[in-house]
Design brief:
- Strands 3-7-8-13-12-11-10-9 form an eight-stranded mixed β-sheet. It has a four-stranded antiparallel β-sheet with strand order 15-16-14-17, with helices on one face.
- Strand 10 and strand 11 form a beta hairpin.
- It folds into two domains: 252 residues, BirA Bifunctional Protein, domain 2 (2-Layer Sandwich); 89 residues, Ferrodoxin-fold anticodon-binding domain (Alpha-Beta Plaits, 2-Layer Sandwich), CATH 3.30.70.
- Helix 2 crosses helix 8, helix 5 packs parallel to helix 6 and helix 10 crosses helix 11.
- The protein is built from eleven helices and 17 strands.
- The chain is globular, with a radius of gyration of 23 Å.
- The chain is α+β, with helices and mostly antiparallel strands.
- The structure holds 3,4-dihydroxyphenylalanine (DAH).
- It catalyses: tRNA(Phe) + L-phenylalanine + ATP = L-phenylalanyl-tRNA(Phe) + AMP + diphosphate + H(+).
- Its EC number is 6.1.1.20.
- It comes from Lentinula lateritia.
- It is found in: Mitochondrion matrix.
- Pfam families: FDX-ACB, tRNA-synt_2d.
Length: 439
């Protein structure tokens, strides 16, 4: 099991399930926030930061020549007869992000430590699956949807609180004619894959631990799960096949759990000596189709993380680069082409530690709260943040935390004064917002 965070197969596979505690600090929010030209009220759970809000209008997945845009169009061209969407609003209700997809009421993804809220009834989508019901309700049977998604997370070279996912789905009629179509598709895809340089480690399409849904005919479910696997194996071959040169591409399927699919799977690809988690998928749960007023159909859906794949294909070493406006980055890429990124320079790191006593009687500051604070002060000048120590004082029972911040720009050398100023602001905000005592 690579991760515990059930709905995060796709980017950030580090588990971030911890105790819940509210991180929001109401005093730092104005009564209203303006997002994409509209005004929204805030409340006691508002936790979206200015640095996150500033990313919303950027839409890098639609910028000509940007690696994420090229990757999106390559995947879209692999599914030419699907509808392609890429302009859905990132603000959704928690109902849409979670309930429509059968997430349990106590799912940790709902907590303010894991997700960004504008207010109680409005949040930044945490995954593209949030739009499944909306798209199925339009009567769409085969579609792809690309979007920016938002999750509170720690800071390092492969994690960023804003990233991009692509959701794909395919529905068939749950009757003899629909199943005949699935079988024909399966045969066609199998033939294509047999001729290719790919080694697939598979698992049963259904099993007792990865069950068929009660309302599904097991034969239909099996055919659809097989179709899902064949379709995605063929996509992975398109994406990674050529990079692997003479070496066959190795793909492995793993049983998974998602609230909104059953059976469910994750897919990993072997790349440069490591298994990398690429996507989550499964047979769409019946209740999602019911809410969408779709009758008599069965089908699959998948969600993949674009940054993860683009970092591999383009050899992009740091996830912050996807947000770079530096010409030395952007000018390297041509629309529609995958080329190897040439790092222009690696500038020096500057490490700064901060240790503090947490407020008397309160739980230790959540890592994600610390990281959002640092991100808000230093933006993309922070490369990673590590907790290096934590303990509870045996007599006073007060907890202490120590973090190490690595400041490094991707574009230039930072001066000592500049870093000291940033660190000073981090410390001031820490004491102002979280009432910690610096040690
Ligand atoms: N939304 C999931 C995530 O962000 C990924 C996913 C899993 C999407 C299964 C799907 C699916 O469509 O069927 O981790």
């Amino acid at each position: 099991m690579l991760q515990l965070r059930i709905f995060s197969a796709v980017q950030n596979c580090r588990c971030s399930y911890r105790s819940f505690h509210s991180s929001s600090v109401t005093s730092k929010y104005a009564d209203t926030l303006e997002i994409l030209g509209d005004k929204y009220h805030t409340d006691e759970i508002t936790n979206v930061t200015p640095s996150i809000l500033s990313k919303i209008p950027l839409q890098v997945h639609k910028q000509t020549g940007h690696p994420l845009n090229t990757l999106r169009s390559i995947i879209e061209s692999h599914y030419p007869d699907f509808s392609h969407f890429s302009s859905f609003n990132p603000l959704v209700t928690p109902f849409k992000n979670f309930d429509e997809l059968a997430f349990p009421k106590d799912h940790p993804g709902r907590s303010v430590t894991d997700s960004y809220y504008i207010h109680k009834n409005l949040m930044l989508r945490t995954h593209t699956s949030a739009h499944e019901v909306e798209v199925f309700s339009k009567g769409e049977d085969k579609w792809l949807l690309t979007a920016d998604v938002y999750r509170r997370d720690e800071i390092d070279g492969s994690h960023y609180p804003v990233f991009h996912q692509m959701e794909g789905a395919r529905l068939y009629s749950a009757d003899a004619s629909g199943m005949k179509q699935v079988e024909e598709d399966n045969e066609r895809l199998s033939r294509h894959l047999k001729m290719s340089n790919i080694i697939i480690e598979d698992i049963p399409h259904i099993s007792p631990t990865n069950p068929v849904q009660r309302t599904h005919d097991p034969v239909h479910s099996e055919l659809v799960a097989k179709n899902l696997k064949l379709s995605l194996n063929s996509l992975l071959l398109r994406l990674f096949g050529s990079t692997a040169s003479e070496e066959p591409l190795r793909v492995r399927w793993i049983e998974a759990y998602f609230p909104f699919t059953s059976p469910s799977f994750e897919v990993e690809v072997f790349f440069r000596g490591k298994w990398l988690e690429i996507l989550g998928c499964g047979v769409v749960i019946q209740s999602t189709l019911d809410i969408s007023n779709v009758e008599g159909k069965i089908g699959w859906a998948f969600g993949l993380g674009l940054e993860r794949i683009a970092m591999i294909l383009y050899s992009i070493p740091d996830i912050r680069l996807f947000w770079s406006t530096d010409e030395r980055f952007l000018s390297q890429f041509k629309d529609g082409e995958i080329t190897t990124f040439k790092p222009y320079s690696k500038f020096p790191s500057c490490f700064k530690d901060v240790s503090f006593w947490n407020a008397q009687g309160s739980a230790p500051l959540h890592d994600n709260d610390f990281c959002d604070l640092v991100r808000d002060v230093a933006g993309d000048l922070v490369e990673d943040v590590k907790m290096i120590d934590s303990f509870v004082h045996p007599k006073t029972n007060r907890s202490s935390s120590c973090y190490r911040i690595n400041y490094r720009s991707m574009d230039r050398s930072l001066s000592n004064e500049e870093v000291n100023e940033l660190q000073k602001s981090v410390v001031t905000r820490l004491t102002d917002l979280f009432r910690v005592e610096i040690r």
